[in-house]
Amino acid sequence: MKKSIVVIVSVLLSFIVYAWSSPKIGHYQLSQFISPETCGSCHDGIYSQWKGSMHNLALPDIIYLEAADAGLKGLTDKDEIEEAEHCQTCHTPVGYITGYPLKTSDNISKIDEISKQGVQCDYCHSITGAYAVYNAKYKYSPGNGDEDPGVKRGPFKDSVSDFHKSEFSEFHTKSEMCGTCHDVKHVRFGTWLETTYQEWQSSPYNKQGVQCQDCHMYQRPGFPSTGSTERVKNPGAATADGVKRDHIFTHYFVGGNTAIPSKEKNETLVKMAEERLKNAVVIKIDPKTEGNNIVVRLLNNGAGHYVPTGLTNVRQVWLKVVVKDNKGKVIFSTGVPDRKGYLPANSIVYNTVLGDGKGNPVDNVAKAREIISDNRLKPMQEKVEKINAGNFTGKVTVEASLLYSGIPQNVADSFKKLKGMKIPVVVMKDVKGVVER
Q1: DSSP-assigned letters across all residues of 250-311
Q2: For residue 330, what are the β-bridge partners?
Q3: What is the per-residue pLDDT across 104-150, written as a single tens digit (0 to 9) for each?
Q4: Of 285, 264, 267, 311, the residue nearest 83 (C-alpha)
Q5: Which pTM value belongs to this model?
Q6: N or C: which end of the chain has fewer CB within 10 A?
Q7: How far apart are CA 418 and CA 128, in angstroms?
Q8: Which of 106-110, 121-125, 338-342, 350-354 is least confident?
Q9: Which of 356, 354, 355, 336 shows the shortest CA–CA distance to 346?
Q10: 313 and 434 in contact (C-beta within 8 Å)?
Q11: Degrees (nearest 5) of the Cα angle 99, 52, 304?
């Protein structure tokens, strides 16, 4: 009897902690939040960087919308449905915490204009901390709209504004600020679906005190600001008449996404994403084989998290290897896409494989009860690939490339509104060497 009471109390306490650690849905009013355009009237440079960024396009991102819609179809398990209905938490956060949309399936045409603008100025700068570093469990203290905007929080201790109160926030300078949305746990099964923060947390960058912001909010055109490049400060002012500082944090927020900026015809962000991807990993080819095996070494020396990161059961990074004899004839290849852009079955893909709890792979994150495998490239850890190229003698030429695609072409083609959309493929690194057996 006593044991039963202990179990019941434990369950109740767990429920209370979960409820308390979740954003207070409906507690906030949409009228409390200021439009990004209002912020941009003073912070025009920062606003122009953010406009068109992946934060700004978090909701209208067509790949997200199609994937979210597909993820809901055919579900009957209530726990799976609950997860599939949870995407809007990060993709339209102002709407979610003010009461609409509460579900992924809610009609996008009915969403208020401010809520449509994704992860935005007033949302981020009204955050005071987090209950837990996953699933957008932030703490908030917004103002009351344009007439009483309240306190806006950021990385400077001496900011002054005629429009709103300003306050230094250590939280805004730490990786936890980013990780609270970029770590995602299945709301019912507890499976980790995205672990960018945890990947950074266990990396050498954390030990060195390098935060997410120190790369992603230093990047600007011509300055990829990765772990393998110099992270040059961005001198300037946050407003036209603001304090001149040795560094103003940039707000481009592009990551490695080239697909959506390409669709939006934003060549600046496309190039920035390419610059970041091309400075993430190095490849070496051993000059000697190990039997029939060509040895290729990869080192993630540029990303403070795994490569790839985010929703990595979908994002596609793979190794393409082509071996040619002394006459230039291809005698072996792997990872060479066909004319449709689809990868062959023998490709070496760096990703996470999610499972149904019985060892069977699943594509839909709503069904993910387990992680079957994760063979991604960890920060500053070498991965060695031994590729059986068949029986050959003498010297051969080996071409090795690491390629990135935000979503596999065959997956994109399976979505009605994405069919026909050519998904960009970025060559992250391309090397060539002579190998002797």
Answers
A1: -----TT--HHHHHTT-HHHHHHHHHHHHTSEEEEE-SB-BTTEEEEEEEE-S-SS-BS-SS
A2: 324
A3: 999 988 999 999 999 999 999 999 999 999 999 999 999 999 999 99
A4: 311
A5: 0.92
A6: N
A7: 38
A8: 106-110
A9: 336
A10: no
A11: 90
